[in-house]
Specification:
Shape: globular
Distance between the termini: 43 Å
Largest sheet: 8 strands, mixed
Strand order of the largest sheet: 5-4-3-6-7-1-2-8
Order of helices and strands: EEHEEEHEEE
Structural class: mainly beta
Length: 144
């Protein structure tokens, strides 16, 4: 089974990064939880993945996947995004160098660039997902 290796950088602090290895069959929901956990944040806010990375136009992205798409039954208005619970990593990232913007917490706007940097084969001795590398100290999620 193939694993995907990602480099995730804080958008406005590119020197702070995490490398994560995860199965391509994992949902975007699970991936979001792993990213947030790798930065020691609480996984307690809405989030989305967007194909538009530059500027503040990510909501106009051609491809977008948001938690709100999975909350239609709870009275949440449709955003035109696809599901994060039903979409697999392998459906979004196809080639090394593919990038998406990850927005966590629509109030505080934590932005991350998520770039596929490689593929690897599953190692039965390793538990996945795996944080492969941490560079830089993660900021505090809340400035209390």
């Amino acid at each position: 089974m193939k694993t995907y290796i990602f480099e995730i950088r804080l958008f406005h602090r590119k020197s702070i990064l995490r490398k994560i290895e995860i199965f391509g069959s994992a949902s975007l929901y699970k991936f979001a939880g792993v990213i947030v956990g790798a930065y020691n944040f609480d996984f307690d806010h809405a989030f989305g993945f967007f194909s538009e990375i530059s500027g503040n136009r990510y909501f106009d992205s051609e491809r977008k996947y948001e938690l709100f798409a999975d909350m239609k039954d709870e009275g949440i208005e449709p955003t035109g995004a696809e599901s994060v619970e039903k979409t697999k990593i392998s459906d979004v990232w196809k080639n090394v160098g593919d990038k998406m913007l990850f927005l966590f917490d629509y109030g505080d706007n934590w932005l991350f660039t998520v770039e596929l940097i490689g593929f690897w084969e599953k190692n039965n001795k390793i538990k996945y997902p795996k944080i492969v590398k941490k560079v830089g100290r993660a900021p505090k999620q809340y400035n209390l």
